[in-house]
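Q: what does this look like with manganese (II) ion bound?
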Amino acid sequence: MTAELLRDLAAAIGDGGVRIVDLTETLRPDYPTITLPPEFGQASPFVKEEISRYDERGPAWYWNNFTVSEHSGTHFDAPIHWVTGRDLPNNAVDTLDTRHFIAPACVVDCTKEVAADKGFILTRSFLEAWEARHGRIPAGSWLFLRSDWRKIADPDNYTNLQEDGAHSPGPDAEAVLWMIEERDVLGFGTECVGTDAGQAFRFEPQYPCHHYMHGAGKYGLQCMTNLDLLPATGALVVAAPLKIEEGSGSPLRVFALVPGNR
Ligand code: MN
């Protein structure tokens, strides 16, 4: 059965029965990087340095060095990223359970709400209403908040920073606890710069998505794109971070397998 399953999958990818949707932003210097208050350490944006390009530095080859933080561009958050997950087993990107690299996704469409309020807060009742339409969120699934952020955010102010802090969507503490305790999700993903709402520094506890998800050994995905191309259920997501020794996360290529229209 397993050999046939893999053979059929490969054939379906080849003939369009299964389509691949790339959920990754291109790693590039001008992609917005999260900025913390000035008293804290800062994440490096993606910086590329050419080693040679078919020239005197290397006549037949082109290659680059690059510098990037573990949390720049489309990236994965491992439990060790947050203090609540610091002592969990297998909590860093090099020790994660590799079975978690492939998992189904539930895509919660919040585009109308985010268009009306960029600081939309995802609540338990909103998720329960989603389940009434689409069915129960299976254990071990990613929960993705779809906002179409790339289409609506100001490219010059991507985190939508105002005088009172950033305004971008994310879950409240009750919704996060429900996703963990009632649904046992694999993790939470978003198109915004962080899995927490822009105003989550005001929440109790602060940054509840990081606090509770990583404390429960669960993961985060941020700065994704193309969630509008996924079905509400039925996508299978491949998200395998780089194997950085004791890494807290990493930029990655994340993509989904979805039913095609062969
Ligand atoms: Mn991160």
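Helices lie at 2-15, 111-116, 124-134, 149-152, 173-182, 208-215. Residues 71, 75, 77, 220, 222, 249 surround manganese (II) ion (CB under 6 Å).
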